[in-house]
Write a structure and sequence with these properties.
alpha+beta; elongated; Folliculin
Length: about 400
């Protein structure tokens, strides 16, 4: 994930400053180049200018942790994030991080917390964990995941600092000493290693921050299917019965198939609306005729399907009684049809059905234009279903991969 994760603190001598950051890179130079820090005190240093923590992933990604970022503009952005995260962008409800945006520089997710320190003003020090990113939507999507892990990091540091604080208080109560002497100047701020009593605290933070960057990249990925050949290569079975199948976009001419308007005139408007609804939502249809060839009606209904060979739910029956959940189109006498269906049309019909009916009522559309338009509508509907299917497949793959 192309982002920067850092930890910042409030130094009583130098103000809010970043002290440690982790980022991904493919440049080996970033793993050997010295950090450039203008201010040096115990609290504002972490690894030192010559120390770099590096982790290499199997795919070649390098997770690099340093005191500062090599890029000057990003360093300035990181310092501004430190100032805002500690001074104003604070979530007092303690339920998660705060997200704030900057279209010119980037977007930030920050979590502010305190560590107990016997030598600090108010016996507490302010710290914050920040995530800097250019992609606003990706940051918003992964905020719940990152915010939860940032809270766990803060609790882990607080537990370590509490142990050191309690041990120092047992030796000498700083609160009582300050009330008695009025002394409040304790020199430079102490480093995070001294506050937590853990010499490997920055190695632990490096592993946490590297996990956050990797988890964010694996949780949300984008796959673009740009061509029919690529989709056939990735998953050939998804082509069957879709708009990518050979001949799916071909519109039958009037010689091979009855027009939709002629079919509506043959069946009457009310019967045609019921068949239109049942055809689109996939209700089984049974056709029984006396004088008319039933295949003509089947070919007319085929215009409503994106792929002509998907009419398995429409059949012709002779003599046998259909089941109760079947819509039966029956020719009562010559040119008179009735529709027997246990259900009724809903008050609000599908959008695709409404668009087809509006197109049929448009006098400016001749039959050829109407059929082309209806074909484009059903193909658009089918492609939308394919997109939803591919999104579900991608989300399942990302879940198991993660």
């Amino acid at each position: 994930m192309n982002a920067i994760v850092g930890i910042c603190h409030f130094c009583e001598a130098h103000g809010p400053r970043p002290i440690f950051c982790t980022f991904t890179t493919d440049n080996e130079k970033n793993t050997t180049e010295s950090s450039k820090a203008n201010v040096e005190c115990n609290g504002c240093t972490s690894l030192g200018p010559e120390t770099v923590l590096v982790t290499k992933d199997d795919d070649g990604t390098i997770f690099c942790s340093r005191e500062t970022v090599p890029n000057i503009d990003v360093t300035s952005f990181l310092r501004q994030a430190a100032v805002r995260s500690i001074t104003c962008e604070v979530n007092w409800s303690k339920e998660g991080g705060v997200v704030y945006f900057s279209d010119t520089q980037g977007h930030v997710l920050s979590l502010t917390f305190q560590l107990r320190d016997t030598r600090a003003r108010g016996l507490k020090r302010w710290f914050s964990i920040v995530v800097l990113m250019k992609d606003k939507m990706l940051l918003l999507n992964i905020t719940p995941l990152l915010s939860e892990h940032m809270q766990n990091i803060a609790k882990e540091l607080q537990q370590l600092a509490d142990v050191v604080f309690d041990d120092e208080q047992k030796v000498c109560s700083q609160r009582a000493l300050r009330l008695q002497t009025g002394r409040n100047d304790f020199g430079q701020s102490r480093s995070l290693k001294q506050l937590t009593g853990n010499e490997d605290v920055f190695k632990t933070l490096h592993s946490h921050f590297a996990w956050m960057l990797k988890a964010g990249a694996h949780t949300y990925t984008e796959t673009l299917y740009t061509s029919q050949d690529l989709l056939r290569k990735l998953n050939p079975k998804t082509i069957n019965g879709t708009s990518f199948e050979d001949g799916a976009c071909v519109v039958p001419n009037n010689e091979d198939c009855i027009s939709l308007r002629a079919l509506e005139n043959l069946l009457t408007k009310n019967v045609f609306r019921i068949l239109l609804y049942c055809t689109l939502i996939g209700v089984n249809i049974a056709i029984r005729t006396i004088h008319t060839d039933a295949s003509i009606i089947m070919k007319g209904l085929a215009r409503l399907m994106p792929v002509t060979n998907t009419l398995s739910h429409i059949r012709i029956f002779r003599g046998e009684d259909p089941s109760s959940n079947v819509c039966v189109l029956e020719e009562v006498n010559q040119s008179t049809y009735s529709c027997i269906w246990a259900e009724v049309l809903p008050m609000k019909c599908p959008t695709l059905m409404n668009k087809i009916e509006n197109a049929m009522c448009n006098d400016k559309f001749n039959d050829g234009v109407l059929h082309q338009h209806v074909k484009s509508l059903v193909l658009e509907w089918l492609r939308y279903g394919i997109k939803l299917y591919l999104r579900q497949v991608n989300s399942i793959k990302c879940f198991f991969k993660f």
